[in-house]
UniProtKB/TrEMBL annotation:
Site residues, Important for catalysis: D142
Family: Belongs to the Glu/Leu/Phe/Val dehydrogenases family.
Top-rank taxon: Bacteria
Binding site for substrate: K66, K90, S345
Pfam families with a match to the protein in the record: ELFV_dehydrog (PF00208), ELFV_dehydrog_N (PF02812)
Domain Glutamate/phenylalanine/leucine/valine/L-tryptophan dehydrogenase C-terminal: 179-407
Active-site feature positions: K102 (proton donor)
Name of the featured protein: Glutamate dehydrogenase
Gene Ontology molecular function, alphabetical: glutamate dehydrogenase (NAD+) activity; nucleotide binding
InterPro entries: Aminoacid_DH-like_N_sf, Glu/Leu/Phe/Val/Trp_DH, Glu/Leu/Phe/Val/Trp_DH_C, Glu/Leu/Phe/Val/Trp_DH_dimer, Glu/Leu/Phe/Val_DH_AS, Glu_DH, NAD(P)-bd_dom_sf, NAD_bind_Glu_DH
Keyword vocabulary terms for this entry: NAD, Nucleotide-binding, Oxidoreductase
Oxidoreductase recorded as keyword: yes
């Protein structure tokens, strides 16, 4: 099953539970608009190479389409469509006034010079500018796209439309209208979800063990924030391998060590573990924060964590999800656990529209309210229908989108 078929299966499941209006269901089975563009780029050696890019605008019932742009060699139209559907679900789960969108270019950015990436990014905007804008569709960074790329895209867009529109894109550098807190917002949202979950499960932070796979942007900030909240981080990993200490890791010292050596491996008096082993530790909370499809039908039988907080996008395959349900392991799904990122992107857009710049304190206060409210709404939906949290998030999101569409 490809990712889009998988997404449609999730739509069908949620639709059955709420007895969704059949017209709305039919409309939600495809994106409202999909653009496929060819982008000619003058390469440094003088030749011209043509790249293929996509933008999928899934649904804008709740607000302008919103979603990142991915630069990756595996990008495909089906993947971009699925990701735009999941963005619709994510924005609706946390109840922000944004719809679902996603873009991508089939490219290995590691093979391009900085100049070639700039020309590719500007070329993409030249092809899609008529269909984006702060009141239409607001892109953002995703895999292998950066604040610098967002700045080039904004610049190209404003040249083409002939006026300033800083809210056309989020994830910009602070000097370009970016928001305070965007760097750690995904982890911060995940930490609020972890705290609410721990309370529901009757766990006390100082006695709650956490293992985190991935020590990049999402994973390292998650480790730092949870450690500051008093949780015991007993294991972390990155692409080179993992480390474990039953007494808990000193995350500040580990961050300095990782900056110096490039990896967490070999830190202090820790035990070395593999990236497979970290997923199978008997911890209270497991946080996948690296790659997709890491909890699969093959390893799910060995998962001993009491609960999982999905900071990565799509870390659990649908087959593994079914087995986790049977095992009674609670999963806080990605559409809720990592929605802190898109929520602060929405704040960035809001500030740009109003010509304001909010402090980090203000951002955190607003973010906490949105994520905590969403967590409890999803939890109540789970209890009401006796379903898992992922299905509950989809149910809540589809209900919101559908009620707007019906009206
Ligand atoms: P990143 O590139 O900063 O970090 C990725 C981390 O994963 C690195 O520590 C890397 O060493 C590690 N890694 C790579 N291969 C691995 C492997 N085989 N096993 C274990 N670890 C491995 O990326 P990120 O921004 O932290 O994103 C991580 C996940 O979180 C992705 O799924 C992403 O889609 C999701 N996410 C991130 C954000 C955000 O704002 N950064 C928002 C929403 C979702």
């Amino acid at each position: 099953m490809n990712q889009f078929e998988n997404a449609m299966k999730q739509l069908d499941n949620a639709s059955k539970i709420i007895n969704l209006n059949s017209d709305v269901h039919e409309i939600l089975k495809s994106p409202e608009r999909v653009l496929t563009v060819s982008i000619p780029v003058k390469m440094d050696n003088g030749s011209t190479k043509v790249f293929t890019g996509f933008r999928s605008q899934y649904n804008n019932a709740l607000g302008p389409y919103k979603g990142g742009i991915r630069y990756h060699w595996n990008v495909s139209l089906e993947e971009v469509k699925a990701l735009s559907f999941w963005m619709m679900v994510k924005c609706a789960t946390v109840n922000i006034p944004m719809g679902g969108g996603k873009g991508g270019i089939i490219v290995n950015p590691k093979e391009l010079s900085e100049g070639e990436i700039e020309r590719l990014s500007r070329g993409y905007i030249e092809k899609i500018w008529r269909d984006i804008g702060s009141d239409k569709d607001i892109p953002a960074p995703d895999v292998y796209t950066t604040p610098q790329i967002m700045a080039w895209m904004r610049d190209e867009y404003e040249k083409l439309v002939g006026h300033s529109d800083p809210g056309v894109i989020t994830g910009k550098p602070i000097e370009q209208g970016g928001s305070e807190g965007r760097g750690f917002s995904t982890a911060q949202g995940g930490a609020y979800c972890t705290r609410e979950l721990a309370t529901k499960l009757g766990l006390v932070p100082s006695e709650t063990t956490v293992a985190i796979q991935g020590f990049g942007n999402a994973g390292s900030f998650m480790a730092k924030i949870l450690a500051e909240m008093g949780y015991k981080i007993v294991a972390v990993s990155d692409s080179k391998g993992g480390i474990k200490s039953d007494d808990g890791l000193d995350i500040s010292a580990l961050t300095v060590y990782k900056e110096k050596t490039g990896s967490v491996v070999g830190f202090g008096s820790t035990e070395a573990i593999s990236n497979e082993e970290i997923l199978e530790l008997a911890v209270d909370i497991l946080v996948p924060a690296a790659l997709e499809n890491v909890i699969t039908a093959e390893n799910v039988g060995n998962i001993r964590a009491k609960s999982i907080v999905e900071l990565a996008n799509g870390p659990t395959t649908p087959e593994a999800d079914e087995i986790l349900k049977e095992k009674g392991i609670i999963v806080v799904p990605d559409v809720l656990a990592n929605a802190g990122g898109v929520t602060v992107s929405y704040f960035e857009w809001d500030q740009n529209i109003k010509g304001e710049h909010w402090s980090e304190v203000d951002i955190l206060e607003k973010l906490e309210k949105i994520i905590v409210d969403a967590f409890h709404e999803v939890w109540e939906t789970k209890e009401k229908y006796n379903i898992d949290m992922r299905t509950a998030a989809f149910v809540k999101a589809i209900e919101r989108v559908a009620s707007k569409m019906e009206i």
